[in-house]
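[SOLVED] Need 3D model of a two-part complex

Original post:
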Amino acid sequence: MPQRKGQLKGSPMSKDQNHQGDSQWPIWEVFVQAKTGAPHEHAGSLHAPDAEIALQNARDVYSRRSEAVNIWVVESKNITATTPEDNPTFFEPAADKIYRHPQFYKIPRGVKNL
Amino acid sequence: MDDDSRHALFEYLLRLGDDRLVLGHRLSEWCGHGPILEEDIALTNIALDCIGQANNFLQLAGSVENKGRTADDLAYFREAIEFKNLMLVEQPNGDFAYTIARQFLFDVFSFHLLEELQHSSHQELAGIAAKAVKEDRYHLRHSREWVLRLGDGTDESHQRIQSAFNDLWMYTGEIFQADKVDDLLFEKGISVDLKSIESKWSENVSEALTEATLAVPDAEQYMASGSRQGIHTEYLGHMLTEMQILTRSFPEAKW
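Solution:
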């Protein structure tokens, strides 16, 4: 018999105690595309031991009434997000730069399409 | 259609319907007991697919029989000896590995069978198969991926799924035993050549088991047979009492 190479990382059977949140399996974020050409939108999250099972679970949990033409899954830990402390530096400056908004510019009279 | 063909087709449709009804009921027993929420939903989804397929096959069986029996009549008012499902699908759920092994052995068979039945000369049968084969492709993907992960997983998961395959192997022999129902319908282009399904099945199953670092059980061992004639293991009767009790106690029950 060949040497067993795989390990169900974080599976209920596994001895490693690398628990994450409320489950022994890692969390994955699911992005669902409703129709071709539309953007993928965040549908929610789920638990799965690896990417293939995450896709299958996503299909069952988020597209069983055929809401999707395509699904992305990404392990939550691979998402880099801003923190509330980032808010002043990241988002506030935009508020006083009104020229960044199209409403700042007056449309010359008589122009129908801009 | 002559009487012999009609009777054979009725029997054949019962086999198709009963396999999926009994397996679907077994899977539904996992509802609320799955090892993890996501897997609970997956198993319940597959259970519903199976019961939906069973409904189509049994409805067609009722109309072929032409005695006014509906799919519900066939599901709820027959005794174990009148059920024509494989012994494999009536085996109790056991642990998760056992359920997955049972599912995988059936999925490989069912997928290839339905793929062929899409080309049946019987149009309604071909139509049902064409719809069901899409569901089966997913069922097979699901069970195959789990066979790989449990087999090539930890020592415990490996040992559990290996024992499951060893225990269930004796119920795989009868899957491909053709009788006169199969032969007659195959001649008419209605059913399929079980021999060709068997070779695809053996190839797919050994390939997956090998990839999962599992041993393929010995094909030369004792094989149970007779379920297509109504002979079953003790488990079917117990399952049916639970499945049928409501309809039998309140035949007109509606909700």
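Edit: The mean pLDDT of chain B is 96.
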